[in-house]
């Protein structure tokens, strides 16, 4: 499938309601015609909890449009646009298609895949589907992030061009399934740890996993 932009979305934290209780989150995005992408964030876009979201390694959140059909069929519902809080909803770029370190030009911006998304329960609250988080982890339909190498503007009709495929070709899907479902695959973990372009957040997770396996083998 060709790489194309379906939706561009951004937004700042707002107060939402789940089971009669209010919570604040930046997951609810509005569709826009352009995103002004800076090295530390998107103009007009923000997160509520900066300890777990945002930052220079998680500037642009991406979600594959192909997954919407899967989820809507599974849950017999229609999801809102940018239901996963993503900034870019794209075709042809699932977690299996992209690798950590891949570099793309989208509009004027040059971006690099930095890490997979570590999903949290906010998605259950936003969609009102209480099993969604577990299914996301099971399937690996998490989404992922870009860091920004060159700032610029992304328009709704901007083309997506792969500038450089990372030599190791370790996909977002591979890292996700290793961490959540193949925790004893020490060779795979070591290959992931060799990725100097992997975000610090995921590097720390994989190092802890590796350490626990080494300690078990002693």
TrEMBL record:
Coiled-coil ranges from the UniProt annotation: none
Chain ranges of the MOSC domain: 29-163
Any Pfam family: MOSC
Record InterPro entries: Benzoxazolinone_Detox_Enz, MoCF_Sase_C, Pyrv_Knase-like_insert_dom_sf
Protein name as it appears in the record: MOSC domain-containing protein
């Amino acid at each position: 499938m060709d790489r194309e932009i379906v939706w561009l979305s951004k937004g700042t934290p707002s107060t939402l309601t789940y089971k009669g209780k209010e919570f604040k989150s930046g997951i609810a995005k509005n569709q826009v015609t352009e995103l002004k992408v800076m090295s530390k964030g998107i103009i007009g876009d923000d997160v509520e909890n900066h300890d777990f979201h945002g930052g220079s390694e998680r500037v642009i959140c991406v979600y594959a449009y192909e997954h919407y059909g899967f989820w809507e069929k599974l849950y017999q519902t229609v999801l809102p646009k940018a239901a996963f809080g993503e900034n870019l909803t794209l075709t042809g770029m699932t977690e299996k298609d992209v690798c950590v370190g891949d570099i793309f030009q989208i509009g004027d911006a040059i971006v690099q895949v930095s890490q997979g998304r570590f999903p949290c329960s906010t998605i259950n609250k936003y969609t009102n589907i209480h099993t969604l988080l577990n299914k996301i982890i099971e399937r690996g339909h998490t989404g992922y992030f870009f860091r920004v190498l060159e700032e610029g503007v992304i328009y709704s009709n901007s083309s997506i061009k792969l500038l450089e495929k990372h030599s190791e070709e370790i996909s977002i899907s591979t890292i996700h399934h290793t961490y959540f479902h193949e925790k004893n695959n020490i060779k795979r973990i070591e290959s992931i740890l060799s990725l100097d372009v992997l975000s610090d957040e995921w590097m720390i997770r994989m190092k802890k996993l590796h350490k626990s396996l080494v300690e078990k083998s002693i």
